[in-house]
Amino acid sequence: MAEAHAAVAFSFSVTHEGVNVDVNHEALKAIFRSGLRSTKKSMGRIKNQMKNGVYPATPMSWLFVLTFVLGFILAGVDPSFGMIGWIKTHVPWLNTAPPLVSYYGSCILFATLIWLAKAFTWKYFLRLLLNYHNWMYESRGPMSLKTTLWLGTVKLMGGRKPMLMSYQFSLPKLSVPSIKDTMNRYLHSVQPLLDEEKYSRMERLAREFESGIGQKLQRYLVVKSWWATNYVSDWWEDYVYLSGRSPLMINSNFYAVDAVFINPTHRQASRAANIIYAMLLYRRELEREELNPILLNKTVPLCSAQYERQFQTTRIPGLEKDKLVHYKDSNHIAVYHKGRFFKVYIYYRGRLLKPVEIEKTIQQILDDDSEPAPGEEHLAALTAGDRVPWYNAREEYFKKGKNKASLDAVEKAAFFVSLDDEPQNYDPKDPSKLSEFGRAMLHGKGYDRWFDKSFTLVVTSNGRVGFNGEHSWADAPIMGHLWEVATADDRTMGYTEDGYCKGEITTPPPNPIRLEWDLPKPCLQAIETSLEAAKQLIADVDLELLVHDQYGKGFMKVCRVSPDAYIQLALQIAYYRMNKKFCLTYESSMTRLFREGRTETVRSCTVESCDFVRAMDDPQKTREERIALMKKAADVHQINCRNAMTGKGIDRHLFCLYVVSKYLEVDSPFLSEVLSEPWRLSTSQTPHQQTNKLDLTRHPEHISAGGGFGPVADDGYGVSYIIAGEDCVFFHVSCKNSCPTTSSTKMVQAIVKALSDIRTMFEQH
């Protein structure tokens, strides 16, 4: 409690001798430094907003325009054709100013207006250029003249040294596809999954919808697309994520694991300190917008809006819908270890703590042998269970007193850190250890992750790291960017020969503050109920990780097949061989070419992929026929991916039409049936090399093993993969133990066999 008492800036007491005031000067200095830091950050945000508002114009270009105008004026030529005189006469504060101030003030104002007009014209023209997407559909090789000219113009107009948010106002809006196009794409996507009778019925429903109520719903959606920044993203966040009442753990949250081929230190406090420090440096760059925006082909920008809520963000439970709360700043992190919660300050005397100082603070927590308060150890299970019981408990027991103060410390933290007391590792001789590592990151014990936080950093007892991410605020590539930077900076900072953080402590850092809880018996019962629900979910999930090191991207490129399409086709083979049928397949694709874009679905099971899969087990087919069918299927998959990325997908359009129908209280048999179709194979590729800090050519061992998620359907699979360089692919396969027809182990074996058979097909002579 000493730290809590020291945090009081002043205290007073009334005695018979009068009023005694005790002022804590150190606390006042801390308050002043905190206020100064907040002011600097606010000023920095305002400055960045002004820069981004006129980008790709720059302050230097304003100075150039002003010099140009003043040069003409001094030469006796009026470049404004009388506008400067009009401004001088009609602008009140210039009309009453001294003659010299009035004249040159009018010149400056005219130059500024010309500069702003040029800046916004430039920005609008850049937006028009970024609406061109035909470059994505061109085959590899020399670009067409049209695309070459377009690319050169975008580079010319794209500005220099952009900040993270510089392109936001230049990105185009996501337009609404036509009903006819979406119906045609949808019917083509379900053709391999339905027999002739069922397909005819579905075609009839689709055409009735297209010519009937669909037209009315479409008009409303088009109006929304004119008004809203993005016609999909707000509804997607609200209805797909925040309105869900089922547990976040396994069902929604995702995870990632360490770079498993190396382990820079086995010391838990040291690894935690370096990663925490790297993440805080990343946060500082993010707040200052010093991170480079991601550019496709080093030219075409992606939307950066999702980065805004990466830190200081918490999902708050609600009765019918949750809400996301983002705090502008935080000077602490929350840490969990052996059932206790701690508040750890990350700034001291106006500066960010160094890794060696964070290491000392973390070690204090590890050495603390105090017992958890009643209910404290399992408290975070409330965030793992159903949302309504957590909402009720929060409203009843966490609205005042020490419970509210401690909950605020957790929810307002920059992020959450869990110090596990078990080791995790990768052993090529025992693949089950890597799967156990993945399970620890996906769900832990059900009570040692704060599943509502934007992310929980997990550090194991032997120095391995991973994270568990909440999904509503952003998609996996955003966390992947942070993870790539943090692990790369961790290696750059390095450790001593004994595995400790480098550097020396000159001033003792602030001690960690143990959070206090007063949980009554009804709250303890709510915690245990949520924990029981979490345990049932954990017992039902079957997760298997695979390190496929027989070959990787290198061989796939030699075959002249897109690596993503190659793996998707292997997954189709694996599923078909296990189930003797095809299924609706989901692959996540990004729509960040558009402002505030998030994801779209690529329907990977196509007529062409089914033809190839059947041919693989058809002895009547020749090697050449199979290869031709595979390349045809891969080409179709690539086109579908590009359609999804460029706003010509299927499922987000249908989802938004369904939302409009609910607002209008109109029933659509077609939409109801389409949106109830289960995704029995849900897949996602984990991106990497989003920065220039990861050199897989020189250091292939630095690649993270990626991450994964739980199954979407009760009788289906969740498959995530990361193409880790030229010779390795990591797979994360999940399903439910309660389903008698699914098995992650068998699915992994089927994937290995499918990949081996495809390789054999290409190598045969």
How do the strands and helices of this protein lay out in sequence?
Elements: H1 2-6, E1 10-15, E2 18-23, H2 25-54, H3 59-74, H4 83-90, H5 92-95, H6 99-130, H7 145-157, H8 179-190, H9 196-211, H10 213-227, H11 233-242, E3 254-257, H12 268-287, E4 295-296, E5 300-301, E6 313-316, E7 323-326, E8 332-337, E9 340-345, E10 347-348, E11 351-352, H13 355-367, H14 387-397, H15 401-411, E12 416-419, H16 432-442, E13 455-459, E14 465-469, H17 476-493, E15 513-514, H18 521-540, E16 541-548, H19 553-558, H20 563-579, E17 585-590, E18 599-603, H21 607-616, H22 623-645, H23 651-663, H24 669-674, E19 681-685, E20 707-709, E21 717-723, E22 729-736, H25 744-763
Parallel strand pairs: 8-12, 12-13, 17-19, 19-21
Antiparallel strand pairs: 1-2, 3-14, 3-20, 4-5, 6-7, 8-9, 9-15, 10-11, 13-14, 16-22, 17-18, 21-22
Helix pairs in contact: 3-6, 4-6, 6-7, 8-9, 10-23, 12-13, 12-17, 14-18, 20-21, 20-25, 21-22
